[in-house]
Amino acid sequence: MQHVLTFFGKGKVLMQKKVTQNDVAREAGVTRSMVSYVISGNSERSVAPETRERILQVIERLGYRPNKAAQALQQGNEAFAKNKIGVIICNAEVFIRPYYAEILAGIHTAAHKNNYHIGFIRFFSELQNPILFNELIHTEEIGGLILVSLDQCVKSEADKKIIEQIKQRIPKIVCVEWLYNGLSSVGFDRQNAAKKAALYILNKHFFPIAYIGETDDRISGVFQAFAESQVEISNFISQLPADNLSSGYNAISELDSKGKMPRGIVCGSDEVAIGVLHYLNEKKIAVPEQVALISIDNIEGSAYANPSITTINVQKTQMGARAVEMIVSGTAVQGENAINISLPTNLVVRESS
């Protein structure tokens, strides 16, 4: 039995029993099971809003804190962990980049809405430590796992072995913004998004064009746009890798130094586009009068750039939310029944093209 100490004048100390669910139930005039339902967020039994509010007010007034060890003992470790979700990300950049921040916000918001909790957010590289792997990756710790954009860091056979070990331990796994064989996922069609972007530029006769961005399916989308628009592929003058502000800036600088400034630029992401736009503004190259610009993502900053950036909107927050909902609903299955959801994208026309 845990206790708290209460101090009185002249150093006198009395032992006071810790507040329990029974105390909360007695004070709120409800059953202990009702208190338990409210605390656990159990959705199998409805609780009247006024009753829930009364219980929460008593919890606040009495300073009740759940005894996690007792809950785990009472419910069983796996039952106690079923409403906890783990999140694995690639690296620390995910926390500071707006695109991924919106995905993580969607995860947190949906978890809260469904009375789930985020048990941890860890970097993939940390799972190489077998002690930490065994501590986190099991059903007595989490009921589901979300893997965010791990295509950026799952490269070697050793990395793939870790993913396979995860698959064996956690039944409910969702990949966000990447695909892995045998796992459910939610994302968007990168190739189609880039095709939409390039077609918009080509149909407005802003060519020759260059692609600056991530070296993935987006490049195929640009080539597909040339085929569908029947614009000669000779009007595609360059592709340069870039994945953030600085690399976008450096890529367009490199093109300019070689005398290969395009009439239109398709950027793989808004962050890359903002870097490109910064260089163009520095050099007093008018956008879109001299160089038109379009990108993919629609992060908030793209609307406030100067000029504002035409972009393909990606449902970032919804991706995170859908990942949680797949775990909650039990549709995050593995193997041949794995579900791959591709959320639609749409064009947002602004001033840069």
Strands of the biggest beta sheet: in what spatial order?
A: 4-3-5-6-7-13
Give the % helix: 40-55%
What is the structural class? alpha/beta
Tell me the radius of gyration.
26 Å
How would you describe the shape? elongated
Number of strands: 14
Give the averaged pLDDT, no decimals. Answer: 89
Strand content: 15-25%
Main pleated sheet = 6 strands, parallel
Termini separation comes to 68 Å
Folded structure, characterized:
This protein is α/β, with parallel strands linked by helices and 353 residues long. The chain has 15 helices and 14 strands. A 6-stranded parallel sheet has the order 4-3-5-6-7-13, covered by helices on one side. α14 links the parallel β11 and β12. The radius of gyration is 26 Å and the shape is elongated.
